[in-house]
Design brief:
The chain is mainly beta. It has 10 helices and 37 strands. Strand 24 and strand 25 form a beta hairpin.
């Protein structure tokens, strides 16, 4: 026993409190190079409901740039995107409450100006009638025309009495840096736009577009145009596409080549269009094809998973077998690209950017939370001497890894012999072990999206469970990302079928291996994962309890009650509505109430615009009428995902008590 005390699984005392695992100082995002270091978005004091722009200097000094009283977050697509940019000694950022863009002057070294009250002045309108109706993200500065170019989402309804999510207008706009205003439309020829980027000479703009029913991981286009004398777009054209695909993350190289990521080969790989081709047929060439995804799905605007260096080499991140790796690509002969593997073993790598000879990225491993990493190239990119420094912003001492459960990535066959995947975490504690002749209860964790993935990076909220004696399986069912386009799209139009099959097969695999107690299996998930929770309870008797965070119970109602970004997503996942209405009803948990007998916990934000509260309220009412043990907590002021610390803590503690009660877990020794 190695001196460990015997205690019932699921009841082990733990130092990982609900509060400590909910603090989120490692959630930095949207790294952007700066003249003296790197800027990024991070929470204030670890609380997700307060975010600011921060600056990390080349010497490691950390300063908050945005003043107290501002919360930096965009609501474009509801999920948001990069909400700021820095040019020279000026910062522009989007404030959450009113979605106004503000301008703020900075000092040269990015330290707070001594003795001066920091001011942020509005660039876009601040009229109360417009608050939240004009939303901005994905900023860049166009110095040639003294303007800010960005994505704008216009929620001013054409008919206030009959608001339709699809009346929202997404466009590229330009905003004069001197006079401000709501923005002049540059392009509005598609349902969605993102990723505006300027060529090195400032004469060409590139951006990404897509239209319903596609999502950005389905079929998109990359367009580019020149500017006329007045700064308007001219000669609009698009990258040649040999087949449909998801084209994402365009950016220019130093000498005018255009780079982007596309999944034409089934994998999100890198491509390049020469400067000459950009003025001709716009045909792209592949760069070092691999059976790996070089990007995650574009739920947020502003991902950067690669960086083009001054000499044409590229720092890239890619994922294989649920692990992220960092590599350096060099063009050695004009045609052949060679990959130098720098480091692997990451659970995630994002936000790659460069500043002179220093490169920055954010990354997390199985034993370390997300942090900024600084990579130094010694001499030039031909050198094999590379050094990586991890910069943990919280300043906390290294965690005791003996309390962390390590993921074992598994694959298993599902229906029709197809493979699905999962990350299995056994219970882990340095002080406790389970009772003799007992097996641990299992928590089945289902990611959202459903086009997301289960990562192997350290997740303290997952360790909250394993450190108390639960086993956890984090499932990558068909439709998850990181396994290529074919696997991702195999869920079309089979959502509510294939994902549930894969979840059940994952559980049975663990039961057959003798790793978990078959009588004590709970399932949890949020958003699309919350739908899977309720659908699984209605389709299988494997589960003794379920916890749904802002999940979907009525697919038909969702077609009429969600936001524009996902308003046609179900066309792909299930089928066009209303033609496929009978399928919508058949796969909706609320219409399968008679098959749900296991206890259900529902946790919902009152201000959720993605999955409105009526989804939880409707199924709660019907289950109560049937006499099923159902519990519902509504969190005031929360949207799609809980950000207030006290609400995250309450949700997690409630969920723990719920499992201990419904799975009949006793603390007897």
């Amino acid at each position: 026993m190695n001196g460990r005390l015997q205690q019932s699984y699921g009841c082990w005392p733990s130092s990982l409190t609900a509060e400590s695992v909910s603090l989120d100082s490692g959630d930095m995002n949207f790294l952007r190079k700066d003249s003296s270091g790197v800027c990024f978005i991070n929470s204030v004091n670890g609380e997700k409901d307060q975010q600011a722009v921060w600056h990390l200097s080349s010497t490691g000094e950390l300063n908050r740039l945005t003043p107290v009283g501002f919360n930096v977050r965009s609501r474009v697509h509801e999920y948001g995107g990069v909400p700021y940019c820095v040019h020279g000694n000026t910062l522009w950022f989007c404030n959450l409450a009113d979605q106004t863009i503000y301008r703020q002057e900075l000092c040269n070294d990015r330290r707070p100006l001594p003795g001066v009250l920091v001011e942020a002045k509005p660039l876009t309108p601040v009229e109360p009638s417009l608050a939240g109706k004009l939303r901005y993200a994905d900023f860049l500065i166009d110095p040639n025309f003294n303007r800010l170019i960005c994505v704008r989402e216009d929620h001013r309804p054409s008919d206030p009495k009959n608001f339709d999510a699809n009346s929202v207008i997404n466009s590229l706009v330009s905003i004069d840096l001197d006079t401000g205003g709501e923005g002049e439309i540059l392009y509005a020829g598609s349902d969605f736009v993102s990723s505006p980027r300027l060529s090195p000479d400032g004469k060409t703009l590139v951006w990404q577009t897509w239209s319903h029913p596609n999502m950005p991981w389905d079929n998109t286009e990359i367009r580019l145009a020149n500017f006329d004398a007045e700064g308007k777009l001219t000669n609009i054209r698009q990258i040649h596409q040999p087949r449909n695909g998801s084209l994402i993350q365009p950016q220019f190289g130093k000498t005018g080549q255009l780079y982007f990521i596309a999944d034409w080969s089934d994998w999100w790989n890198l491509y390049r269009v020469s400067a000459d081709e950009l003025e001709a047929t716009c045909k792209a060439e592949s760069i070092h094809p691999m059976e790996a995804d070089f990007a995650p799905p574009q739920w947020l605007l502003g991902h950067r998973n690669y960086c083009v260096l001054d000499d044409g080499s590229m720092l890239v991140s890619f994922t294989q077998d649920s692990q992220w790796k960092l590599g350096l690509l060099r063009n050695t002969s004009g045609e052949t690209w060679k990959m130098q593997n720098i480091v692997d073993g990451y659970g995630q790598i994002e936000n790659i950017c460069s500043n002179a000879e220093t490169l920055f990225f954010s990354a997390a491993t199985a034993n370390q939370e997300n942090a900024i990493h600084r990579l130094q190239l010694e001499g030039n990119t031909k050198s094999t001497s590379l050094s990586i420094e991890r910069i943990a912003l919280s300043g906390d001492p290294e965690a005791d890894t003996s309390e962390f459960s390590s993921a074992k990535t598994i694959s298993f066959k599902t229906e029709n012999g197809e493979l699905a995947y999962g990350n299995f975490y056994p219970p882990c504690s340095s002080q406790y072990t389970g009772l003799v002749d007992s097996l641990p209860p299992l928590i089945v964790s289902i990611h959202g999206g459903p086009t997301s993935c289960a990562k192997t990076s350290l997740n303290l909220k997952l360790q909250f469970w394993t450190n108390r004696g639960f086993a956890v399986i984090d499932v990558n069912h068909r439709g998850s990302t990181g396994f290529g386009r074919k696997f991702r799209q195999s869920l079309y139009p089979n959502w509510g079928l294939f994902d549930l099959q894969d979840i059940e097969f994952a559980v049975r695999h663990l039961i057959n291996e003798g790793l978990v107690d078959p009588e004590k299996v709970a399932i949890r998930g949020g958003s699309a994962g919350g739908y899977s929770v309720m659908a699984a309870l209605s389709k299988s008797n494997l589960f003794a309890a379920g916890a749904s965070y802002y999940g979907i119970s009525d697919l038909e109602v969702l077609t009429q009650g969600t936001h524009k970004f996902e308003s046609r997503y179900l066309d792909q996942l299930i089928g066009p509505y209303p033609e496929a209405r009978e399928i919508y009803l058949a796969r909706s948990p609320i219409y399968n109430i008679d098959k749900i007998t296991a206890p259900l916990l529902l946790l919902q934000g009152s201000e959720d615009k993605v999955v409105p509260p009526d989804q939880a309220e409707g199924i709660c009412t019907k289950l109560k009428q049937k006499g099923v043990d159902v519990r519902y907590i509504s969190f005031e002021g929360e949207g799609h995902g809980f950000r207030q610390l006290q609400n995250q803590v309450l949700a997690l503690e409630t969920e723990l008590s719920f499992y201990q009660e419904t799975l009949k877990l006793s603390s007897s020794q």
